[in-house]
Amino acid sequence: MIVVSQSGAAIVGAVLAFVLIAAVWALYAGLAARAAARTAYEQNRRLLRFSRTSPALPMLIRADGRIEMSPRLAAWLGLERPVESLARLSQKDAGLDPEDVALLGEQVEAAQRAGQSFRLSLPVRGSERMLLVLGERASEAVETPGSVLLWVLDATDSQAEVGSLEREADRLRAAFDALTALIEAAPMPMWYRGPDLRLLMVNTAYVRAVEGRDAEDVVSRGVELVDGAGLGGPLANAAIARDTQEPQSAAMPATIAGARRMLRLHDVPLPTGGIAGFAVDIEELERARGGLKRFAEAQRAMLDRMSAGVAQFGSDRSLVFCNQPFRRLFAMKNEWLADRPEFDRVLERMREARKLPDVRDFPHWKAERREWFTSPEAVEESWSIGTTHLRVVAQPLPEGGLLLIFEDQTQQLELQREHGEMQQVRTATLDSLAEAVAVFGKGRLQLWNRKFRQVWGFEDGFLDGHPQIATIVKAAGGKLVNAARAEIIGDLIRLAAKDRQQRGSSITFANGRHFDIAAVPLPDGNALVTMLDTTDRQRVERALRDRNEALEAADRVRTAFVANMSYELRTPLTSIKGFGEMLQGGFAGKLSADGKEYVEAILMSVDRLGGLIDDVLDLTQSEGQPIERETVDVELAATSAADVIAPLAKGKAIELVIEDAGTAGVVQGDARRIRQTVEHLLRHAVSHTPEGGRVLLHLDGNARVARVIVSDDGPGMAPEAVARAFDRFAQVGTSRGGDRALGLGLPLAKQFVEAHGGRIELISEPGQGTLVTVELPRG
Q1: Residue 387, C-beta contacts closer than 8 angstroms, at least 6 positions apart
Q2: What are the beta bridge partners of residue 775?
Q3: What EC number(s) does its UniProt record assign (predicted)?
Q4: pLDDT per residue as tens digits for the range 168-203
């Protein structure tokens, strides 16, 4: 048996009491905690329900970069499941664009560092969804420091509506700007008044019209466009428009740019209560009206001077105007016309004066003429009144009146009769012509003479039908040697009739006759065709051509003969020169002084004859043959030729002078032929210049040609000698030295120059010397 002391019992009792109290407190605390938990649970459930139905979804971005988001937000972003980092918000064809993710990261970092809130609109890739993101630093009571809380709203519909509103605003703004620009660009003054009729806006044309500084200045001072603002002024007109709510217009004078102008002011009431106005300058219109009035007066004055009678009736069928010829033609008195008689009365007055055609039923005739007023088009008649013939034209007027024109054609008809007689004379004249003549017009044969019918052998019935050009051509083809040549006739007629060109050709008939055919345009638009028999001329021309061909063949034979003879002469000439040089060299013994002189004369003659043979060969062989093309120094070729001629000039005591301007340059050609050309010219000049004379060789040129000039102070040449100087094998008669010579140097020079495409010219007069100019092209 355990015995407990009183003190121990007390302690045990105290412990039990403490335990009991603790248990009771624990129970109370548990119950309280349970109630608090239940309250928190209900609150969390309510908040969760709110969050699930809320238009904004949260996204928490922690300081370490991890994010928390709901599956619903992931679905908004097009993601299959929530992600844990910002980088994962951008995926292939889903989430956000990489650029938008980078921008979101920058804004999150700024919010983490400086607590700066932000607002972004981010499109979702692969869809039309637009998300609005509101970001701010998260409260430390909600999350750890450095976290950022994002609220994401689906702003697709609102953004679309905002975009639509922005587009509509842009459209309205553009329309307003365009309207403002239109008003500013308008050449007429425009303005806007408030309900109290004070000016609120004016355009540039208004400012310019009132000579203001700018629109603000004009509005602030209330400068009116039209003089006077009292009764009947612009304000009164605007007040009427405001009160009646109907547009008003009035013509008022104004001073613009120092000149008085007439303006028509228009005031239009607006739904806002204001008045819009604009002014149109009608000064030119008023002047035009005055001009029309003056034109009408001038027209009537002109009608008075016309030879035809003119009468104008108004819409009420009364006579409003008639000219002097009308009054004289129908014997109308001014006193009677002053009452503006009606149309029927005018016709009756004409009948009383016996100025109308004789008709049986005059009332019916008059009623028919009364219908002229309502006729849809002009009516034309011919009236015969005794020996007078009138052409009457009735022209209905747009305003309901009628214009009558009476033209006396008596003289014209007489002229037509005379014209018919002239036509008969013309026909008789054409028939008497020896040429075949025909006139074509409007695509047909209009007129022809007897010779034309005989040449072609056409039947009278065929021609009387005035056949078309194509029919004439077809019928003419079978009568020609070449049927296709008949088309030439149609071509000539068309050129003359349509193109107004005169052309000609020739045709040959099957019977051997030849005709020259020509088409000449006539003033009336027709075409005159003439045919001239040229059979005899063709025969003469054929005989001349045959003779010319025979002469050309004889010339070729002569040229060939001269060439062959030149070759044949070279052989004995070479032998003569060889034996002469042997005699001169002493092979046959020593010669006497006279023998040496004879041998030198023989060798000189042999050289001269050899040179002539060489010239003849050059003249006959080089004709028509192409020259060689190379770069030739004209100065070098000319001085080489001068060196060859220098001994000849020295032997005659002739001064040979070379004058080089330094511009001769080079040409493309045959160096040997160019040197020979200069040599022939110098030899010709030296041989025909008397002893003690002077020969000048001048060289120059430009960018186009090189020029060689050879001149002498010899006796010159007669005009007939100059005309034949370049003729081949021509006897120039007595030369300037007194002996006769063939003169092959100049023809050869001309032939060589022309082969190079150049030009040679000789100028000479008796007693004035001779000048020869050669121009060689650079190319």
Answers
A1: 410
A2: 707, 759
A3: 2.7.13.3
A4: 888 888 887 787 788 888 888 988 888 888 888 898
Give me the sign of the Cα torsion angle 126, 128, 131, 132.
positive
- What distance in Å separates the CA atoms of residue 687 and residue 743, rounded to the nearest whole number? 11
φ and ψ of 496, to 5 deg: -75, -40
Query: Please, are residues 188 and 278 in contact by the beta-carbon 8 Å criterion?
Result: yes
Question: Which segments of 85-211 does DSSP mark as H helices, in order?
Answer: 98-114, 156-185, 204-209
Question: Of 54-63, 461-470, 476-485, 613-622, which gets the smallest average pLDDT?
Answer: 613-622
What 3-state DSSP class applies to 435? Answer: coil
For 603-662, the pLDDT digits (tens) are 767 766 666 666 665 655 555 556 678 999 999 999 999 998 998 899 889 999 999 998
Cα–Cα distance for residue pair 448/527, rounded to 1 Å:
12
Domain ranges of the chain: 20-50, 54-154, 186-281, 288-408, 424-525, 534-621, 625-777
Give the tens place of pLDDT for each residue, 124-144.
887 888 888 888 888 765 556
User: What is the structure's pLDDT at 759?
Assistant: 93
pLDDT (average), residues 537-543: 79
Q: What whole-number distance in Å separates Cα of residue 721 and Cα of residue 14?
A: 177
581 vs 587: CA distance, rounded Å: 9
Q: Is 620 helix (H, G, I), strand (E, B) or coil?
A: helix
Identify the pLDDT of residue 740: 32
Pick the CATH number of 534-621 from 1.10.3470, 1.25.40, 3.30.200, 1.10.287: 1.10.287
**CATH dotted code for 186-281:** 3.30.450.20
Instruction: Give the architecture (CATH level 2) of 424-525.
Output: 2-Layer Sandwich (3.30)
pLDDT at residue 735 is higher than 50: no
Element (DSSP H or E) covering residue 243: helix 234-244
Question: Do 212 and 203 form a contact (C-beta atoms < 8 A)?
Answer: no
Length of the chain: 779
Q: Please give the class, per CATH, of domain 54-154.
A: alpha beta
Q: What is the pLDDT of residues 208-218, one digit of tens each?
A: 888 888 888 88
Comparing C-alpha atoms, which of 517, 514, 518 is closest to residue 540? 514
